[in-house]
Amino acid sequence: MKNVRHLFDISDLTTKEIDELLRVAEDIMMNRGKYAGACARKKLATLFFEPSTRTRLSFEAAMQELGGSTLGFASAESSSTSKGESVMDTIRTVSSYADIIVMRHPKEGAALAASQRSVVPVINAGDGGHCHPTQTLADLLTIKHYHGRVKKLRIGICGDLKFGRTVHSLINALTRYENNSFVMISPPELGIPNYVQHEILSPRKAEWTTCQNIEDCIGSLDVLYMTRIQKERFQSVEDYERLKNCYVLDAAKMMAAKKKMCVLHPLPRVKEISVDMDDDPRAQYFTQVTNGKFMRMALILKFLEDADKGYCPPPAREVIKNKFICENPACVTNAESDLVQLCTLRDATHNVYRCEYCESKVKKPF
Ligand code: NCD
Fold first, then answer.
1. Can you give the CATH number for the domain in which 90 is found?
2. How crowded is the C-beta side of 268, counted as CA atoms within 13 Å?
3. pLDDT tens digits, residue range 18-38?
4. Domain range holding 17?
5. Per the domain annotation, does 314 fall within a domain?
6. pTM to 2 decimals?
7. Residue 297 resides in a domain
8. Overall domain count for the chain
9. pLDDT tens for residues 325-354?
10. Which of 123, 200, 220, 357 has its CA 20 to 30 A from that of 213?
């Protein structure tokens, strides 16, 4: 397969590239006409095997504003997946129609799997409970505009930190900027995954604490990032029912927050943010939606440009093939039987190997 650059997670972008994407998105916002024909005759495919409103439509709106066109499907049922076709075959097909592919799938690592059959860039628009880098770019732009910076902030992240993919990518991005600190607000069973702690927070020496109630920490925060409890990822309906309304942010709780705190949410919200605070100027979740389109315009431009130049950064780690079996049932390798198992050594001192698709720990390769 041709070596093209893909976006699986925010770690595929350097901090310099993230900053440049933010700058380009701001330039697009201010000079819309300048970019109107930038992607003329280019096609963007949106392959959504899972529901979406904002991510899919913002990518489509973004491409249309750049003068390009779009094709794709909005559910697995309306594609040949429903006839039993593999993601790999679907991608191979679509990559001969489109110049860039945006894909969302319920399995972790699905975008990485898809990229192995694609001759055009694949952008991950959410792979199960794993990551969601393009949402993070929208979040960063919103924080930057609101606070004038993405560093030196105390960030509370509240809700489902285990399955909430936007949270994992957000932590990965914000820990790169100096002096950010974090309060992880969740019930103990919905805390951040092991790999986020050991691969991101610890090596970057990020300052973080946990907390179970919004009231206990809201007064210290500059950003409060709310998330939905991810119903579709729960194994047990009872567990979901028990946890679903564990956090509700409302106007009364906001009284204790700083005047300059902002509230973000990737949306959709269920009940975790009360509509009685939508008019509070600190509520920035609909601004995030607007920013998402501009960030995605910048991203499409960059990945098409890199593909045209033939630019593809070298892999960050040496990959070991087919020498272990990933046991995570949510991993794409457990759904697509023809996939090559891939893992990397992440921590030589403790002998930690992780699956490249879903980042869960795997036994030492044989
Ligand atoms: C999120 C997602 O799909 O992960 N939504 C989004 O893309 N803006 C959040 C969610 O579904 O809870």
1. 3.40.50.1370
2. 6
3. 999 999 999 999 999 999 999
4. 10-132+290-309
5. no
6. 0.97
7. yes
8. 3
9. 899 999 999 998 889 999 999 999 999 999
10. 200
